Amino acid sequence: MSTAQILNYEVIGSGEPVVLLHGLFGDLDNLKGLGRDLSEDYQVILVDARNHGDSFHSDHMNYADMAKDLAATLDELKIDSAHIVGHSMGGKIAMEFALTYPERVRSVIAADISPVAYDPKHRHILEALKALDLNQVNSRTDADKQLAQHIDTKGVRQFLLKNLRRDDNGYHWRINLETLDSCYEEISGAVRDGSYDGPILFIKGGDSNYLMNDHADEIKARFSQVEVKIIEGTGHWLHAEKPRIFNRLVRAFIENHSRT
């Protein structure tokens, strides 16, 4: 049985609270551009999910546990309710949290993700990271060369290599690769059943296949107050590809559902 723990977090700005949740292999820096934008008017809480960034490592990794981690972290900050924004896996944590603690959620924004179970889209990335021989790595360039044998896209490699840390004994992973691998089926899985009748916005990357029309039934089964926006000409990394549009959509939705 896994126990919830307080996540590593960073708070910027003041006002109504907005939580930002990153995706798989990421950390709290991923949505920092959005965080800085919102922090002019809101209290922004950026968190590292368990087994990511500077948060604790655990052998367990499922959405029920991750929703509890977020609840424990908000308790620590004495925040009773917040707007919850998440990208990819972070969007699933946001949905799970809203379905579990609806009274603690002012609004939800899920960026390029739906509540459904997915085919194992990241299995090749996990295999590539596991294949990386850290004993042969004396620099990031070494690591990049090894990864390039499995992953063509330089941007993806750079993103993944942000998880390499160096100490006196050489390089090691900051993510808990073992648990991400062993729990990958749960990470790819659907969020819980239930209902959240507050406002939720899905933002789709126009060229991405993560949020599709045939997910509509699964969305409607859980959420009744749904809006969808599409950012054309973006893939799954919509927040990085078109940040101005992405940030504007998020800000407008949160403003519409603010209490002040």
TrEMBL record:
Pfam families: Abhydrolase_1
Residues covered by the AB hydrolase-1 domain: 17-243
Organism: Pseudidiomarina maritima
Name used for this protein in its record: Esterase
Segment forming the signal sequence: none
Coiled-coil segments: none
Keyword set includes Zinc: no
Superkingdom of the source species: Bacteria
Molecular function per GO: hydrolase activity
Alphabetical UniProt keywords: Hydrolase
